[in-house]
Write a structure and sequence with these properties.
Layout (H helix, E strand, L loop, with lengths): L8 H13 L25 E5 L7 H4 L7 H9 L8 E4 L17 H6 L1 H11 L3 E4 L2 H10 L6 H4 L4 E3 L2 E3 L15 H19 L29 H6 L3
Parallel strand pairs: 1-2, 1-3, 3-5
Antiparallel strand pairs: 4-5
Helix pairs in contact: 1-5, 3-8
Length: 238
């Protein structure tokens, strides 16, 4: 029997993208654009950014995560990074638009429905650091494995989680500046850059698993030949 691990990362990612396109679990999101494609960034990135959901005027329209978020582009540029060099995804892959047309906040059910896809993105990218952008992203990761982090207290701190590390940040959108100034966010990104650069000087070492750290990933898509529905995708995680 051929192991699915022998398939290229690109092939496995394309299967995941195809699976996402058939998802209709969320009544108000089923017909919306699923923002997961090669436009999300590099699958070889050592850093995975997880935001809340696609914006109606940005990613929902263009298919590019955090599209039009000038603060994010500036913060990346300040540390010499480009969006093509990192991978960006969302806790929920569709825009949770309200009836009045404005952006809404994903419900707990919608976050849970998308959690299998987030699990698989993490498994494929296998990042050294997962950077959560905002509270919703932190909640989404807690659904996968508890981490006990509150954004206000844990911002810009490196926290062991599974076989990687979390680095919680505020979302770089204009509203978040009320809670954390752009100057402090620049410092946060500088610290992130130093962490990644320091790691690049050494061999990759899994994050320590002390008290409160979660076990490694359960059975993942790399162990199965194919999946074309969320039902099948979720079975991979049982």
């Amino acid at each position: 029997m051929i192991s699915y691990q022998s398939f290229s990362k690109a092939a496995r990612f394309n299967d995941l993208v195809e699976s996402v396109q058939h998802c209709d679990l969320c009544p108000r999101l089923g017909a919306r654009r699923k923002v997961l494609s090669s436009a999300n960034g590099s699958m070889d990135s050592r850093v995975l950014f997880v935001a809340e959901a696609p914006g109606r005027l940005g990613a929902d329209r263009t298919g590019v995560p955090l599209y039009g978020d000038n603060n994010f582009e500036v913060l990346l540029g300040n540390i010499g990074w480009r969006r093509e060099e990192v991978f960006i995804t969302n806790a929920v892959l569709c825009n949770p638009k309200q009836e009045n047309g404005n952006n809404g906040t994903p419900t707990q059910e919608e976050i849970a429905n998308c959690s299998a896809y987030l699990e698989m993105v993490i498994a494929l990218i296998n990042p050294d650091v997962i950077v959560t952008l905002g509270t919703t992203a932190l909640k989404a990761l807690a659904m996968l494995s508890p981490h006990g982090i509150e954004l206000r207290d844990g911002v810009a701190q490196t926290v062991p989680w599974r076989n990687t590390r979390l680095f919680p940040l505020y979302h770089p959108g204009p509203r978040a500046i009320l809670h954390r100034s752009l100057a402090k966010q620049r410092s946060d990104f500088m610290l992130l850059s130093k962490i990644v650069h320091r790691d690049s000087l050494n061999e990759r070492i899994p994050a320590p698993r002390g008290r409160g750290c979660s076990p490694p990933y359960p059975l993942l898509l790399t162990q199965f030949p194919s999946f074309h529905s969320l039902y099948h995708a979720r079975m991979l995680l049982l």
